[in-house]
C-alpha cells in the first residue's frame, strides 16, 4: 500500500482481518444509508470470498435498543461499520470479538476490541474517509485482490458527500489505486446530471434549481433556451452544448441566490465505475434510495452486484428522487422557521429529513445559519442537521451540538460537524430546538473569541 497511509491504520485493519479469520461466521452490522450499505457490502463480499459465513443487519441509528440487539445476536464475532463511535465502551464490555470500522467523531478509544477510525490517525472522518473507506481498507487487509471493490467504496464516499469539496486524505489514496488498477475513471466536472436530460434535470437535487427541479415546464424552457432536445443525454452533448447548458444552469442558480460554494460543489468531478457501468454518485443514490425507503435487502443486493437488485434499485431511486424533489418544492414554498442561530422545518410531511436538510442548507434560506429538520410524527422524533463549510469554519460543530441538544431533550444524537442526526421524545421538540439554538450560538461566539486578532 501507499506509504502515506498511516502505519497504525494498516496495523489496526490487519488486526481486524486476523480476528475475522479466526471465525467461521461473522455478523455484520451497519448503517442504512449509501455509505453504510456500501461498507456492509464490501465487508460481506470480502467475507464470502474468504469462505466465511455471514449475516448483515442494518440500523437507522445506533441506539441503546440496537446495541442490545448486537449484544444478543449470539455471534462469536461481529463487525460494525459506519456506526459505533459513541458506544466503544459498551463494545469493550461485550463477550464476543468485535471489530468497529467507523468514521464518526471519536468519543472513546478502545481498550479490548479492534477499533479503526480515521480520526484516530489524524485523518478527518467528515471529509477524507467514510465508513466504506474503512471497510475497503479492511477488505484489502483480508486480500489485496479486494481492491476491485474500490468502486463500491466510492459509492459510499459520494453518498456521504465527501467528494463535494474534492477528494482528499485516505479517499485520495483509494482514488489513486482505483484509477491505477482500472476500477475508476475520472470524468471532467460538470453540474449537468447524467442520463436523459428531460428526466435527470426534472429530478435533480444536486444542484436544486428553483423553477427547474421538479418542473416539467421549467426543464423544457431551460433546454429550449440552450437549444437542446429533451430526449438528449448528457453524455451525447457537444462541448458547445455542454457549455451553454452549464452557463444557463449557473445563471438560474445565481438568480436564486445560491452561493458560489454550492455552485462549485455542484460542478464537481464524477467517478465512472466500469464494473457497474455507471458513475459512483448514481450507484450511491440507488443504494441510498433503497435505504431511505426501507428496502435494505435490495440495496445490499445491488451493492453486492446482483443484477435483479440493481434493476429494482434504479426504479426505487427514481421514485425516491421524485418524492424528495416534491418535498423540496413544498419546503421552498413554506420556507424555513428562523431562530437566532439556526433555522428549522417540520419534515413530518416528507419522510426524507436528511436529504431535505442538505438541499435547504445549500440552496434555501439564510446561508449563515445551519438547517435542522424535525419529524415528530411518531412518539420518538427524528432530527437531522446540516451546516455548510462556511458555517463550520465559523465554529459550528453539529456533532457536539446535536449530541448535547438531544440529550437535553431526553434523547441521543451525534455525527459529524457538518452533518448530524438524533432522536428524542416528540413532545420535547421545543426543548431540543431551544437547546440547539443556544449551543450553536455559543459555538460561534466561542470561535470568535478564540480567533486571533489582526493588528
Protein architecture, described:
The protein has helices at 7-21, 34-49, 64-71, 88-92, 131-142, 150-159, 169-180, 197-200, 216-226, 239-255, 260-266, 280-292, 296-303, 307-334, 353-363, 389-393, 398-408, 429-450, and strands at 25-31, 53-59, 77-81, 97-101, 114-116, 185-187, 270-273, 278-279, 337-338, 343-346, 371-375, 380-386, 412-415, 419-425. With 455 residues, it is an alpha/beta fold. The N and C termini lie far apart (46 Å). Strand 13 and strand 14 form a beta hairpin. Helix 6 packs antiparallel against helix 7, helix 9 packs across helix 10 and helix 17 packs antiparallel against helix 18 (429-450). The strands form 3 sheets. It has a 6-stranded mixed sheet. A 5-stranded parallel sheet has the order 2-1-3-4-5. It has a 3-stranded antiparallel sheet with strand order 6-7-8. The protein has 18 helices and 14 strands. It folds into 3 domains: 7-181, inorganic pyrophosphatase (n-terminal core) (Alpha-Beta Complex), CATH 3.90.1640.30; 197-327, no CATH class; 335-448, Diaminopimelate Epimerase, Chain A, domain 1 (Roll).
Give the helix/strand layout:
Layout: H1 7-21, E1 25-31, H2 34-49, E2 53-59, H3 64-71, E3 77-81, H4 88-92, E4 97-101, E5 114-116, H5 131-142, H6 150-159, H7 169-180, E6 185-187, H8 197-200, H9 216-226, H10 239-255, H11 260-266, E7 270-273, E8 278-279, H12 280-292, H13 296-303, H14 307-334, E9 337-338, E10 343-346, H15 353-363, E11 371-375, E12 380-386, H16 389-393, H17 398-408, E13 412-415, E14 419-425, H18 429-450
Parallel strand pairs: 1-2, 1-3, 3-4, 4-5, 10-11
Antiparallel strand pairs: 6-7, 7-8, 9-10, 11-12, 12-14, 13-14
